[in-house]
Amino acid sequence: MKQLTKKTFLMAIILPLIISCNAETKRTAKDNPTQNAKEIDTTQVTKEIKEIDTTSFNVKTDAIPINGIKLNQPLAILLKPYNLTKDDNSNLEYNVNLDYEEFAFDVKYKYKYNDVAIGKIKSLVVFYLKNDKSTFCYELELENNPNCKKILAELKNNFGKNTFYKKVESTKARPAFVDNNGEPETDHIIQELTKWNDDKNKANYYVISKENLTTKENKLTVIVISTISKKSAEWIDYRSLKMVFD
Predict the structure, then answer these.
(1) Which residue range(s) make up the domain with 220?
(2) Could you give the number of structural domains in the chain?
(3) Which residues form the signal peptide (predicted)?
């Protein structure tokens, strides 16, 4: 355990919490939402993303293009291209004491990113404010999916140079993570943290990729957060992203 630095130890505890957070996570929100998050000033030029034609979309047969999901608009407008409504929500729970609500896509739908078929997903959840229904975040989770690296490649193709990247490799001889019992992880694990700015759509992508080379398991979490929503700064803090992506 002495081999673990303080920061790495914190990451080892915080990251599983981030990755495990989903539409069923319930916590008490702050009474006064954080003021509008400032749009990040960057000279990075976001590559043009081809608009998705969903005028004749059939959710029963067509794959939902996740790269076509646009935040900073009411939930009804976000769902309209896929011929879905809030009544198609797979999450039947209601947040009584919170200022936001969740829409969970059915995991049985087909999904793709650009032209890459994703296959089975663990979850895809859009978060929106109760008062004006504006969407401020969506989170995608893949687990033990052979297409994780392909999705990472597509993200890079869309947004180009990242604004943050960190790679952590953990081995039995040099453990960088701890297991559920707080003991040094002995498996060979590679974790990559990447952040991209989507200036065109006023959003930031926080991507966590984890591959266990010993057990042949993998996990990919993509958290997309609006840069102009009044909920943005609070959500970044709620997901502990500032501490991890630093």
Answers:
(1) 6-23+54-244
(2) 1
(3) 1-23
